[in-house]
Each structure stands twice: as C-alpha cells, then as structure tokens.
Amino acid sequence: MKTILAALSMLVIASPFATLADEPLTFYTEHFPPYNYADNTGVTGLNTELLSLACKKAELVCNFELYPWLRAYENASKNSQGGLFSTSRNIHRERSFKWVGPLAHSTANMYRLKSRPEVNPHTLEEAKQFVVGVASGDIYEQYLLDQGFSYSENLLRLAAKASAVKLFLQSKVDLLIASELILPIWFAGHDVNVNAVEPVLDLSGIDANYLALNPAVPDAVVKKLQLALEEIKAGEQYKRLKEKYMHPPAITE
Question: Which CATH superfamily, name and number, covers 2-105+208-245?
C-alpha cells in the first residue's frame, strides 16, 4: 500500500471547465476514502468531486494533489494559492486558514470490538483507561490531548488514520476512532464484517470536513467557492455524488 500511495502522491487533476480569471489554486489532500483518494484516473473521491464542481461553478482553475497528511498540511500552509481538504476546523487551526465548507462528512465514534465487553467507557474520562490510536497531526490527536489524554498513558501515535485498524483488530489498541461511512471501507481490507464492532462514545461535532485555504488566497475567491459550494449542496448534483460514494457494498463474512 505504501508503494502504491507513493507512486500516486503526485497525481494531479484539474477542473477542465475553469477560466483563467483567477490565479490557479492547488488543493492538497491525503488518502482518506471515500472523501479523497487516488485511482488510475488521478485524485478522486466524494469531496474531490464536490470541490471540482465548485471550482467549475466559480470559474476557478483548481488542481488536486495527494500526499501523506502532514506533507499536505505543510504544502497548503506554504503555498499562497494552496488549500487543504478534507480537514476539520478547530480553535487551533482557525486563524491559520480561510475556510470553505462544510464539505461532505459523517459523524465519528469510538468503537470497541464486541468480543471485548470489558472495553466499555461511557465518558472520555473513562476512556482514558484504554489505549486509542491516533494519526500524527490528525484532529483527534489534538482533541484527545486537549481532553487530558497523553502518549505516556493512553495514546498511540500512528502515521495514518487507517494504521490503527490492524492493531485494533489484534486488540493492541482498545478503541478505534471511525465513522459509519469509513468503517466498512477500512474493514474490507482486513476481510472483517463491521458487525464485529460497536460504538461506545459519540464524537459528533468534532469531525466536519472543510476546505482550509491559505490566508493569502483573496477573500473574493473564498467567497466564490463558498457560494458555489452552497449552491451545489442544495441541488441534485450533490445527492448524486452522495449516492455514488456514501453507500459502500456490504461485507459478507
């Protein structure tokens, strides 16, 4: 998988309908299906297509590039015409970017294996008794650190979100952070049915996805994208996109 992602990391797609009225934008993202990922056509996914449609409607030139998360974040921070998606918006990031969204997202939970009923926290405080895997630089890393979790006691730092899945299935990580949309996709790679797990803590309100634009991007461009996004989300195109990406096939045992 690492080899495949490395080979795909520089794939770029551009909105073919854009004009040259504004300086081209480059939107960086990570491998995080179904929202954003690379296939043999380039960078794709629900939020990639949603933003491509928004660029078309706003008559902007938008390129899409896929990297590991921390590299994507760094590129968006350094590129005056850059942006980062699908990213969560919080107090630590608020002033570092200009925001467009929300994009497509689903509510996250902390999950446990049904075979481990002893892992049964009812609050975040109780969850501190268990080990949670988090990706370095991810929104949940900062959130849990803010809530008093620590790497010396109950957090395991990982290179990517999906890296926690194998450890979780091996009971080396007690709690897995995921959403109902992401979980079947992650588990499909391990030939595991989602019925093997159940949610124990709701993390709603933390995980809305946005496009985070470099502060140097003109306000007029930000406004164009926001208005275009809102129009698309209110119409049939968005419904069709959700149908395309948000109903992964069932996984049989």
Answer: Periplasmic binding protein-like II (3.40.190.10)
Provide the residue ranges of all domains of the chain, joining segments of one domain with +: 2-105+208-245, 108-202
Query: What would the pLDDT profile of 62-110 be if each residue is shown by its tens digit?
Result: 999 999 999 999 999 999 999 999 998 888 899 999 999 999 988 899 9
Model confidence pLDDT, tens digit, residues 149-163: 999 999 999 988 899
pTM of the model: 0.76
Closest CA to 123 of 201, 53, 50: 201
Closest C-alpha to 35, from 107, 76, 70, 87: 87
Q: Are 188 and 50 in contact (CB under 8 A)?
A: no
Domain 108-202 belongs in CATH node 3.40.190.10: yes
d(CA 31, CA 17): 25
Tokens of 76: 């968006």
